[in-house]
């Protein structure tokens, strides 16, 4: 009966979009069904992905040296590294690798796999490589600085002294997942170290192994029976591509899905009052932001940048589309972290925006192309800005679609999205939003939002960000971050923050142990349904 139900779930995944009211039996006790929008998934290589949905999948296919528990995220715990030490000078981290761990292939996980995986991340140099490259690792020095000294010991040596927690946090990120180097040895194509293969396959040691991926339809992961922490209770996880909020709401309300991940605030509110689900609001370390390309003659003017601050309906959005998805915040250090300040001086003010545009030389406004992701709540936020801008004489040609590639390559005028930095420390956000050591196109600092926006960040701010990352005294770090917060706000930045993100999910009451993670590493092996 269970097998028959699985086949039914798989075969109707695509049909559910056209007929969301189709009634199914309740999901099986030993299977977790998650409704999500998978349209942004380009692959599942841990060294390449940079989206919340992909990160959650990778978090369960692979493992990392360090674990940051969802309920105590600032305290690094042992993962694949059962222990570690830091040298007196703060530059050398020595990890003892856990014995008895198997990859899905059956190969044993060794220190050599750790060495190869971390080196691969740096050598590929894709966006997630910032997690290690920002500490001074490069393709030229990584073989010297990251090395397996025996079968169970890995040494990670940083070129400079950094706050040690920053290094440990980085080694807990999905980008530093450990891959099966022996299994991938014959998967190399043109020196890609298995990158093409890993788009739709896995080489991990996590609690689940990838079984099926039908693009924009269905992803199936099966429990790994030889998982070192024990076989998970959910023997299968099905991720169903359901991009529409209304369809997700119907599926979870009917019991055809256990978790819904991309719901509008309206649908979340209705489900919350219905009593069948609980709404999780997981705080994140990123922002909903507006990026103004500083290569553009108009958008590079400080008063134009400042005008956009007055075209966002912070209070109106906070009570509607952002009710479950964000907390109003116009400063740059996420709330709850050292240096955060409670200061939101801007509000929607069309006349003030007009005044600033006139002072900048544009009394009649201007027209720009505006790229935004067509998912909730990003697109609703973009539509609100478009309407307000029109009242100030600024015509925004709003174009939905997957434009992240254009943003990363500086091929845009205006772009908005949300970020999700993965280190529970202010440096995670500030590195991306407030540093840009080389503003040339050739630098290709694609992991930094400031570079993508071609913003030549004031040197004073960049110097403070660097100093705070090196500082080992926590009270001094907090003082520096408070100063950075004030300086960033006063600079009329090219990256306008409006809301600190929260990730909202609807979870049916019978599902226990599905806990949203602030760095996107939500686990499935902790889930049960009372069985």
UniProtKB/TrEMBL annotation:
In the UniProt record, the signal sequence range is: 1-25
* GO molecular function per UniProt: peptide transmembrane transporter activity
* Localisation: Periplasm
The Gene Ontology CC terms held by the record are: ATP-binding cassette (ABC) transporter complex; outer membrane-bounded periplasmic space
- Is Zinc found in the keyword set? no
Q: Which residues form the Solute-binding protein family domain?
A: 75-440
Which biological process terms from the Gene Ontology are attached to this UniProt entry?
A: peptide transport
Question: What keywords were assigned to this record?
Answer: Signal, Transport
Q: What is this protein called?
A: Putative ABC transport system periplasmic binding protein
The top of its lineage is: Bacteria, Pseudomonadati, Pseudomonadota, Alphaproteobacteria, Hyphomicrobiales
